[in-house]
Amino acid sequence: MTRTPSLGDDGGFEWKRLAQQELDRALDLHEQFVGGRMGGQRANFLLHDLSYLDFSGRDLSNADLSGARLHHAVLEGATLRAASLFGADLTQANLRGADLTRTDLRGVHLRGADLTNANMVECDLRDGLLMRPDKKGNLVGIGQHARTTDVGSAILARADLSNAKMSNAFIVQTDLTDCILRNVKLVRADLSNSNLTGSILEGADLTEATFDGAVLHGAILIGAILSETSFAGADLAGAVFGTVDYGSASFQNALKPVHFDTLDITLQTLVRQHVDWIRTAGKKGRRANLTRIDLSGMKLAELNFSAAAFEFAVLARTDLQKCELLMADMGFADLRGADISRADLRGVNLKRANLTGARLVAAKMNPVPIFGAVTQFWTSQLEHAKFVEADLSGIDMRKVVARSASFVKAVLRNADLSGADLQDADFTEADLRGANLEGCDLRGAIGIRQ
C-alpha cells in the first residue's frame, strides 16, 4: 500500500493507494461478508486512491468508499447497492450497467463518467462536503469538487434514476437520453445544454431548475413541478408537458411548436398543393411541411398526406382516420390520443413518436414496394416509439422495425407482426390474443412468452 499526496487544498492530506491484487483480496472478503459467510469483512475504502483499478462485476453492496478517488476506475456491472460514495471522485469512471440503488452519492464528482444503463433508483446525488480534522482540530473540507455534486459531461443514457434526490446537482452538457427520472428531486439543479431526448420526468420536482439550451426531444414532463424552472433557449420539439404557458419568461427563446392557425395558409390550400406535388412527382405543387406545427385536435380524416413532413409535430387527439400517410415522416411526433384507425401508414417513420392512448385499429404499416430494376421494400420505422395503452387491434405491422418500442398495456388483438424486428421492445401487460408473431426477432423483448 502506498500513499498519494493531495492535489487539493487539504493541508497535505494523503490518500491510501491499493494495488489491484490488494483490492481483489479486499473485495473477496467483502463478498464473503455480504453473503454472510465466515471470515468475511466489510470493505472500507474511506479516502483510498483506487484510480484505474478494476471492480467490474464485483459486489460492493454496503461498502464504504467515502471520499475515495476512482479516476478511470472500471465498475462495469458492479453492484453498489446502499454503498457510500459520499464525496468520492469518479471522474471518467466506467459504471455501465452498475447497480447504484439507494447509493449515497452526495457531493460525488462524476464528470465524464459513463453510467449507461445504470440502475440509480433512489440514489442520493445532493450536495455534500467531506470533512476531516486538521492538525489544530478544526474541521476542513477534503477535495476540490466536494461541495456540489458534479455530473457534467457524464453519460447517463437509459439510466434509471427514479425517485433519486438530485437537488442542486451540476449536470451540464450531460447525455441523459432515455433516462428515467420519475419523481426525481432536481430542485435548483443545473441541466444546461444537456441532452434529455426521450427522458421521462413525470412527477419530477424541477423547482428553480435550469434547462437552458437543453434538448428535450420527446421528453415526458407530465405532472412535473415547474415552479420558476428555466427552459430558455431549450429545444422542446416533441416534449410533452401537459398544461403549460409557453408564453412565460421561463420559455424565452425556446424552440416550441407553432399552432397551425398562425400559418399563412389554409388547410385546403396546403392539401391541394401537396396532392399536386404527389401527382406530378414533385414537378408542381409543394410538399406539406408540418414540422414542429401544432395540429392538435384538428379534423384531418381521409386526407392524403403521403410523404408529408410531420417531424416533431403535435397531433394529440387529431382525427387521422383513413388518412394516406404512406412513407410520411412522423418522427418524434406527439400523437397521444389520436385516431389513426384504418390509415395507410406503410413505410412510415414513427421513430420516438408518442402514440400513448392512440387508436390504430386496422391500420396498415406493412412494407411499401419500391419498383425499379430490382424491387425493394421500404419498411416502417418505429424505434423507441411509445404505444402505451394504444389500440392496435387488427393492425398490419408485418416486418416493421420497432426496436426498443413500448407496447405496455397496448391492445394488439389479431395484429399481424410477422417478420417484425421487436428487439428490446416492451410488451408488459399487452393483449396479444390472436396476434401473429411468426418470424419476429424478439431478442431482449419483455412481456412476451416465447
From TrEMBL:
Pfam families: Pentapeptide. SUPFAM superfamilies: Pentapeptide repeat-like. It comes from the Bacteria. This is Pentapeptide repeat-containing protein. It comes from Oceanibaculum indicum P24. The lineage of its organism: Bacteria, Pseudomonadati, Pseudomonadota, Alphaproteobacteria, Rhodospirillales.
